[in-house]
Amino acid sequence: MRIALDQARQDHQKGEKETGNLEQDLQVAIKKDRDDIARMLIKRLKPLSRLQSERRNHIDRLNHEIDQFNAVIEQHRIQYEQLRQKAVEFFYRKEKRNWEPIWPSAQAGLRLHELSEEEVELELLQRKEALKGGMVC
Question: Which pTM does this prediction carry?
């Protein structure tokens, strides 16, 4: 569609240039009282003016169609983004449900390995010594 629009614009520009040249030639012919040349130029100019009008309408229609396509594409992009977000949420909830049966047993396993007060004190002393630069075994 963009290619068609570019081509239509090029054709319109060429027509504008040709129209300008014919208008200049027509003015010269009229100034020089060359009615025969002026008539011939008018015969070329009138159909070209109608063609230019049709080209302009064609360009306007193409622009309108492109705008409509862009609006549809934007709607589809929004719908896609909404669906993508729903899919992410769905898979997150599914993953969360898969972990729920495992979590209570994982917490129970942590309780089995609770540290005694002596183990906590030993770890604390080792870390303090490590920070001071020494090592306690």
Answer: 0.56
Provide the CB-side half-sphere exposure for 38 (13 A, CA). 10
- The Cα-based distances of 64 to 13, 51, 75 in angstroms read 20, 20, 17
Q: How far apart are CA 41 and CA 26, in angstroms?
A: 6
Q: How far is CA 103 from the centre of its chain?
A: 43
Residues 134 and 85: their CA atoms lie apart, in Å, by: 53
- Given a contact cutoff of 8 angstroms between Cβ atoms, the answer to whether 94 and 26 are in contact is no
Query: pLDDT by residue (tens digit) across 49-78?
Result: 999 999 999 999 999 999 999 999 999 999
The whole-angstrom separation of Cα 51 and Cα 56 is 9
> DSSP character for 134?
-
